What does this fold into?
Amino acid sequence: MSPNVLPWLSLVAVLWLQSFNGTNLSFPAYSSQLKEFLSISQFKLNYLSFASDAGKVLGFISGIAAVYLPLPLVLLVGGSLGFAGYGLQYLSIAKKMFTLSFPQIWCLSFLAGNSICWINTACYIVAINSFPMNRQVAVGITASYQGLSGKIYTDMVNSFSNSSPREAASGYLLLNSLVPLVACFVTAPMLMTHGGDKTTSSTKDVKVGFIVLFVLTIATGIYAVATSLLSAPTVLVLVGIALFLFSPIGIPIGVWFKELVSSRKTQQKVHDLEAPEKFEFVEEEDRTKEEEEFEKAIVGVKEEVEWTQLWKRQDFWIYFGIYLFGPTVGLVFMNNLGQIAESRGCTATSSLVALASSFGFFGRLLPSLLDYFFSRSKYMPSSPVSMAVSLVAMVASFLLLLVDSDISLFISTAVIGVFSGALTSLSVTMTAELFGTKHFGVNHNIVVGSIPIGSFAFGTLAAKVYRDGAALYGDDGKCFGMHCFHTTLVYWGMLCSIAAVLAAILYARNRKFYSHKP
It folds into this structure.
C-alpha cells in the first residue's frame, strides 16, 4: 500500500480505538447500581473507582513495552487486560457464576484501568509517528474521540437494554469487556504495515486531509451534543454515531484515488522528455520545503528527557502538580457524578454522563483546532496559559454547582466536561513540548500516574463527607440534599485554583521557550 495512504489509515484506526477505549467514562452511569449489586458503602465504591485510576500507576510499563514490542501487540495486550478485568466482573456480579471477594473485584478493576494505558500508548505513538509535523493536531483529534466513549456506551446500553437498572449495569460491564477487544482485533492489521517516521505526502495534501478531518470531527461532536440534549430513539442515535465514526475512512480512500489518477496522468505523458525533468525538479523542491518544515517542528521540543531523569527536573514536579490538582479533580468529579445527581434528586444520570462525554469530546478537540489554525498568531496562548484558563473555568463551575437546581448541575457538568477534556489534550502536547517525543510513551504515563493519587485522596474526602451526611440526614446509607457534596465541591474548586497558579509558574519558568516556539 502507498506510504501516503498508510498514515491516514493508521490515524483512522486510532480514532476508532479511542472511541471505545474510555470505558472508565461510563462508570458514573452504573455506579449506583454496582453499589447495590455488591451491597457496599460509599467508601468501598470510591475504592472501586480509585482502582480503575490506580491501574494507571503501572501505565509506564506499556510505554516501555512499546519500545521493544510491535504496536499491534501492545494494542492486543491492552484489549486482553480489559477483557479479563471487566469480563470476570460481569460473570461474577451479573451472572453469579462464581463469587469474588471485594479485594478480588478491586484487582480486576485495577487491571481494567491499566488496559486503557496500553491502548492509549499505542494510539499516541501511532499518531505522533504518522504526522510528526502535525503531532499536536493528530494527537488532539484522536484524544477527543476517547471523550465520546461515555456517550457511545450509554447509547448502546439504552438501545439494547430497556429493562431494570440492574440489567443495564450488567450491560455496561459486558460491553466494556468485549467492545475494546473487538476494536483492537479489527484495527491491529491497519497499524502493522505502518513503520515510517513521516509521511511522504505533500504539505498541501496533509493540510487538506486535516481540514476534512476537522469538519467530520466537529460534525460528530455537534451530533453527539444534540442527541444528548434532545430526546430521540436510541437505536437511531447509535446508527448516526456509527456513520459518523465510519466517515473518516473517506480520507485515506481519497488519497489513494488521487494517487491513482495522478499515476495514470504521468504514464500518459511519459513520452514527453522534458516533463520528467521538470516533475523531478518540483518533487525535489517540495521535499526540501517539507524537510525544512519538519526541522522547524522539531524545534517545538524543549529537550529530550529520558524517563529515568524526569525526577531531576523541577518542571516535571510542577507539571505533575498541575495534573494532580487539575485534570484529576475533573476525573474524580465524573466518577462521583452518579452520586452527586442522586443526592440532588436528579434521575437523569445517563443523560448527564452522555452530556459530559459529548462536551468532553469538544474540549479535547479545542486545543488542536486552535493550534492548527492560529498557531502562527501572536495572540495564540501557550499550553501552560491555556491550562491556567481552563482551570479557572473549572473553579467557576464548581462554585456554580453550589446552586441548588438541575440547570446549574447540567451547565456545570457540561463546562467541566469541556475543560477537563481540554486539559487532557493539552497535557499530551505539553509532555512532548517539555520532555520530548523519543521517550513520550513512558514519560506521559508517569505524569498520568498522578491520577490514582488524586483519585484516592480526593475521592476519599468526597466519600467521608457523603457518609457523614448520610448518618445525619440519609436513609439506608444514602445521602440526600445539597450538603452531601457542598464541602467537597468547595475543596475541589480550591485544588483547581492551586493548579492554575502552578500552570502560571510553569509558563513563567519556560516563557523564553514558548516565545520562540514555532
Summary: Residues 406-435 form the longest helix (30 residues). The radius of gyration is 23 Å.
